[in-house]
Amino acid sequence: MSTLPFKPWPTAIAVAVTLLIWLVIPLPEGLTSDAWLMLAMFVGTIVAIIGKAMTIGAISIIAISIVAASGVTSDNPGTAINNALSSYSNSLIWLIAISIMISRGLIKTGLGARIGYYFISIFGKKTLGIGYSLAFSELCIAPVTPSNTARGGGIMHPIMRSIAKGFDSLPEEGTSSKIGKYLALVNYHSNPITSAMFVTATAPNPLTVELISIATGADIQLTWMTWALAMLLPGLVAILAMPYILYLLYPPDIKQTPQATQMARDKLAEMGKISLDEVIMLLVFLVLLLLWADIPAIFLGDAVTLNTTTSAFIGLSLLLITGVLTWEDVLNEKNAWDTLLWFGALIMMASQLNETGLIAWFSSNIENGITRMGINWVGASALLVLTFLYSHYFFASTTAHITAMMAAFLTVGLSLGAPPMPFVLIMAATSSIMMTLTHYATGTSPVIFGSGYLTLGEWWKAGFIMSVVNLVIWVVGGGLWWKLLGHY
């Protein structure tokens, strides 16, 4: 008997929740039946994603089919399917997919590992220095690695484990506290910080950009450069503070590591001289950063300004033309194609919730509840941010969490008088900060937690403390920085 293509209980729960909302709960006043059906399908989809009833790509195909067949977007069958597929023309979706394809070059050429070992060869004389080497290595490659799992788990984690093994710090031998526990924590907690710093550093960020645009009526359109500049100062402060705070929280037994620099040099020697493909990859990396930062326009005028997604396509084209990546590499980058598929489905559903009036209705009810509490916009904003952040304890997917809650929370905060730009920026940062909390918070967490260097209690303790630290840095440091940038 073949294995079922879906998990029975999560699937049954998702279907039951959908039918309960649609057929059992009375239609609230002020909503159309189409809006209520759209909500039922949306919530059912989110429940299926949280429960991992199927892979998220398969769930997305089913969601698109049901939305199109239901007729909630149009009575005309042809228009209905066009509307259900409308989000695939969104350039942000293609930006993240193409960027994931580009990031394959970091792994294929070995450039990502070389950067990591290079930092350790310079700063690795002390355990704290190795921690900072891991953090800044991840920061260097973050702009072109939208898969935070590939970055933290696929590139940096093998380097971290190699160093820990070199010091005989192994979970199976009960020697994690020598150095491995600390390095695993730095390896992981670099991930949420770097994810917050660039639109292209984690897959859900463009979804956040789109939801911000929807919530503000397109008044706020966060470009790659606007996001990067806004997150620069708080991100750097956080990346500087994190290794030291974790060092104090879980001090390693081994403090001096002079042999680590030699280990890193040996690894670099094994890799040999930098290859032509690595040089090309590095040059393409720099070209992309220049284009995304709109540097050519500063010197040559607006005529040379390119859309961020156009720039990403140019970067991928250069890697294909030079042979650094082959078309087979692109086709085999399943994560990119999977992301393209589910991203489009979730943005479509979020857009339809807004168009049917559901977001406005839901936000109005939350707003009324907060208003009855008698708190001003400052208290309301704090309540919304904290609720959004710590509700991630109940989510195993940042994408599902952002899709379920971000749009409504943005709408409520803005309607209650929160300064638009600072509020959307802190919500955007929070969508990455929340990754610190649990061992299932994002794709990177089970990879690093699964290596066995930390107990569950140690992981959750560190996660909560770092969530508070990061939030304070972004609220205080970010707030001052955004004031200086003229965002309010």
Spell out the key features of this protein.
SLC13A/DASS; transmembrane helix; 0% strand; membrane; mainly alpha; transmembrane; CitT-rel; 73% helix; 23 helices
Could you describe the 3D structure shown?
It comes from Vreelandella neptunia. It is a multi-pass membrane protein. Keywords: Membrane, Transmembrane, Transmembrane helix. InterPro entries: CitT-rel (IPR030676), SLC13A/DASS (IPR001898). The termini are far apart. With 488 residues, the protein is mostly helical. 73% of the residues lie in helices and 0% in strands. It is globular. The longest helix has 29 residues, at 456-484.
Question: SSE layout and pairings?
Answer:
Elements: H1 8-24, H2 33-50, H3 56-70, H4 77-84, H5 91-109, H6 111-123, H7 127-141, H8 148-166, H9 180-197, H10 204-215, H11 224-249, H12 258-271, H13 276-292, H14 295-300, H15 308-321, H16 327-332, H17 334-355, H18 358-372, H19 377-390, H20 398-415, H21 420-433, H22 444-449, H23 456-484
Helix pairs in contact: 1-2, 2-3, 2-17, 2-20, 3-4, 3-17, 5-10, 5-15, 5-17, 6-7, 6-12, 7-8, 7-9, 7-11, 8-9, 9-11, 9-21, 10-17, 10-20, 10-21, 11-23, 13-15, 18-20, 19-20, 19-21, 20-21, 21-23
